[in-house]
Design brief:
seven-stranded antiparallel sheet, globular, 779 residues, 22 helices, 32% helix, alpha+beta, eleven-stranded mixed sheet
């Protein structure tokens, strides 16, 4: 059976599933053909990290900074609490911060580090990383042997918490399970580290330790019924479903696939399977790994619902919850879809979230080679991820805010050990992943970055020279062991416009016809890149030259076209507003109030008229006569702008209020007509219907909604997801966050992971949300 659009509808998957599912065979259980533990469903495979070498540019620089940091860390300090919990004498003083003793994520850094050094070995071939991974695995094997039952944890109260869980005693809240701070989340990091050590360094002991560790988890959960399991899953558990699915792929033992489904959080997953965006008020990085595990299970086992939920989730996050940099969320939480204007200031865009979204993005592209996934990869990588690492000392950031008068939240790399320090270790070892994909007959070039690549199956070597992301050309030169026919698919970025050009051995190619002019799904359309395909018999010395012109433009917010980011091609331009301000120790926010941010009085003019390049300073720009102080006097104040990833240790803005001659936006104005450059949004007509259909006078859970009594309307409800807490007078009044969702799924907040904005590990879950029912016309 092939899953066509018609069959998808018969299975109850919904029309939106078809782009990902089209043409996939659905085998009978246990009958799927496999390759390296995967069912043969991947349409494109990334060239392995070990086959790609970065040779220059900001990606290579970040990789080098990460390499230095990883080697500076001391494994025995990371492993000290592991040894202590097993009754062994520590070999060094333990690290502190989130990896310290007491009620912490103790032990998570060792897992992140094991993953990172394994990835870095593959990405660089530096033998020191393979040796580091081998040492850590040997130490972990000794710890596990001392425990005697497969257990492997550094948590101070881990034994007690999991013993109570096994007895069916479950006290589960957002970040707390039986008194421990997200214990499954913490253990997930070590499972992932062992997996990566096995997969990337070939360490068989790592696999053996992981299997014993998984058997311990299986015993813990064996006596729990489904209701108890679901109650347990209200606490953050990381990617436990993913690592168990990966273990199934590595061993072909179906007990690990069954264990993966033990970590299926149905209260969160099932609405996504129904194409219901219920994300508002949920903790972002708690949710993304759940969907990554779902996709892995589809790859290995083929359950259509796994891919359905993940594909819809990705689309919603990328197109309806993300800012121009590819980041999303405020204070770590999702807001309502397409309601971003009031979210941009403050602590936005956690780096862990973007790291996990990129992992999901690369895997979805492998399933369906759609340039839209590559667009998001480019956007999030060259804006958020590159902005998250200080180019001078390699500090990574917890938050990389996008608002007005904000600054980076740099981390203490040897004392803090937050979750973002851990994912940062891995993230900057992964920059070679997803640049190139292949399927035997095609080679996709998704990103333009200085690199070399070995395509073993084709006997081909590719060298790419480019100054991207700021340069505007790329040159690819081939070397082959023998002439070979294949198709080179060059990504034609949506932002390159008509100036995009390709030459093959000096001869200009016809690239006027795009293979895909855009993509429409879930009721809206948006710009998307395409591929220029060059099919021929390739020989050593063949050279392809690509021209990638960037132009200036605006990317307005979907709910406020007069608030926008300035874009230079795919790059967000940040305005320099002055030095960094003193920062609080706890959450990293500046103690001093933010500076005034000028308004750009140019809403109805082409951007190139009022943003000018700075002579002799490539990649630098300045506003020209349009900046005004946001006060009654309106004194002139222009701003300097540079690509966001280059601006560090400064106060900045990436969003700007745009002024014009009129006090309100005309429906036909240039700003409203602008697209979001690959991120899309709800149509103007849809938004206007929503506004016209609902009024909320004095809403604080008491208001009313008016709705048109027209035929053919879809019943929805407006849910009060959470009330933002007020921390200090400067925060202003408390605000309510509202979200639309189909009324048939009414009933308040079902998931205790919906909690207060800065709840932290000890925050109590919110109670049921009041529901306001109304009718909204269908789009």
């Amino acid at each position: 059976m092939t899953l066509s659009r018609r069959n998808a509808l018969k299975l109850g998957l919904g029309a939106g599933a078809a782009p990902l599912f089209t043409g996939f065979p659905i085998p009978a259980p246990g009958k799927a053909a496999t390759r390296n533990g995967e069912r043969v469903v991947l349409r494109a495979r990334p060239l392995p990290l070990s086959a790609v070498r970065l040779t220059g540019g900001p990606l290579k620089h970040a990789q080098e900074l990460d390499r230095q940091y990883l080697l500076a860390l001391e494994p025995d300090r990371m492993l000290a609490y592991y040894r202590q919990r097993a009754g062994l004498a520590p070999k060094a003083e333990p690290y502190g911060g989130w990896d310290g003793g007491g009620r912490n994520l103790t032990g998570h850094i060792a897992g992140h580090h094991l993953s990172a050094v394994s990835l870095m070995w593959a990405a660089t071939g530096d033998a020191r990383f393979k040796q580091r991974a081998a040492y850590i695995v040997r130490e972990l094997a000794a710890v596990q042997h001392a425990h005697g039952d497969g257990y492997l944890s550094a948590l101070e109260g881990g034994r007690k918490a999991f013993a109570a869980l096994a007895r069916g005693e479950i006290r589960s809240a957002a970040f707390d399970l039986n008194g421990e701070w997200s214990p499954w989340y913490t253990l997930h990091k070590m499972y992932a580290g062992l997996r990566d050590a096995y997969r990337h360094t070939g360490n068989a002991t790592a696999l053996a330790v992981e299997i014993k560790f998984a058997a311990w988890a299986e015993r813990v959960l064996s006596g729990l019924d489904d209701a108890q399991i679901q109650h347990m899953l209200n606490t953050e558990f990381g990617g436990m479903n993913e690592v168990m699915a990966d273990l199934y792929a590595d061993t072909r033992d179906e007990r690990w696939l069954r264990l993966s489904y033990k970590f299926e959080h149905r209260a969160f997953i099932e609405p996504l399977e129904r194409h219901q965006d219920d994300l508002g008020g949920t903790h972002g990085n708690t949710q993304i790994p759940k969907l990554l595990g779902s996709v892995k299970r589809f790859v290995y086992a083929g359950a259509p619902a796994d891919l359905l939920a993940a594909g819809f989730f990705w689309d919603q996050v990328a197109q309806h919850h993300s800012f121009a940099t590819g980041g999303h969320g405020k204070d770590e939480y999702f807001g309502p879809p397409d309601k971003l204007s009031d979210m941009i200031d403050g602590r936005t865009c956690e780096t862990c979230n973007v790291y996990n979204m990129l992992k999901l993005t690369r895997l979805l592209f492998a399933l369906q080679p759609d340039a839209h996934y590559a667009d998001f990869h480019e956007r999030a990588l060259f804006n958020h991820i590159m902005a998250s690492i200080d180019p001078e000392d390699g500090r990574v950031c917890y938050m990389v805010p996008v608002g007005r008068g904000v600054q980076h939240e740099y981390q203490d790399m040897l004392h803090g050990f937050t979750c973002d320090v851990g994912t940062g270790m891995e993230s900057h070892a992964l920059h070679g992943d997803g640049i190139y994909y292949e399927d035997g007959a095609n080679l996709w070039v998704n990103l333009y970055a200085p690199s070399t690549a070995e395509w073993a199956r084709a006997g081909a070597r590719l060298t790419m020279d480019t100054g991207f992301p700021e340069g505007e050309t790329a040159k690819l030169v081939f070397g082959l062991t023998a002439p070979r026919e294949f198709t080179l698919a060059l990504r034609r970025p949506y932002w390159a416009g008509d100036g995009f050009a390709v030459k093959l051995n000096g001869e200009r190619q016809n690239v006027d016809r795009e293979t895909a002019g855009g993509r429409g799904q879930y009721g809206y359309a948006y710009r998307v890149s395409s591929y220029v395909e060059l099919k021929r018999t390739w020989r050593t010395g063949d050279m392809v030259e690509v021209t990638l012109p960037k132009s200036l433009g605006l990317e307005p917010l979907p709910d406020n076209p007069r608030r926008a980011s300035v874009m230079w091609g795919p790059l967000v331009l940040a305005g320099d507003l002055g030095p960094e301000r003193a920062r609080e120790r706890t959450e990293g926010e500046a103690i001093e109030p933010p500076p005034k941010v000028p308004v750009l009085v140019a809403a109805d003019r082409p951007v190139a008229e009022w943003i000018k390049p700075v002579a002799a300073v490539p990649g630098s720009f300045k506003s020209d006569g349009v900046g005004r102080e946001p006060d009654a006097a309106g004194q002139a104040r222009d701003v300097d702008l540079v690509p966001f990833y280059r601006l560090h240790r400064r106060t900045y803005a990436t969003y700007w209020d745009l002024g014009g001659e009129e006090s309100r936006v005309r429906s036909g104005s240039r700003a409203v007509a602008a697209t979001r450059g690959g991120h899309g949004g709800v149509s103007r007509a849809r938004r206007s219907r929503l506004r016209a259909s609902v009024q909320l006078p004095g809403w604080r859970g008491r208001g009313a909604a008016a709705y048109p009594r027209a035929p053919g309307t879809a019943r929805h409800e407006l849910v009060l997801l959470r009330r933002a807490r007020r921390f200090r007078a400067s925060d202003g009044p408390a605000r309510d966050l509202l979200q639309w969702r189909p009324a048939r799924h009414a009933g308040g907040v079902r998931d205790s992971s919906r909690r207060s904005a800065r709840g932290g590990p000890d925050a109590p879950p919110l109670g049921p949300a009041p529901v306001l029912r109304c009718r909204v016309p269908d789009s």
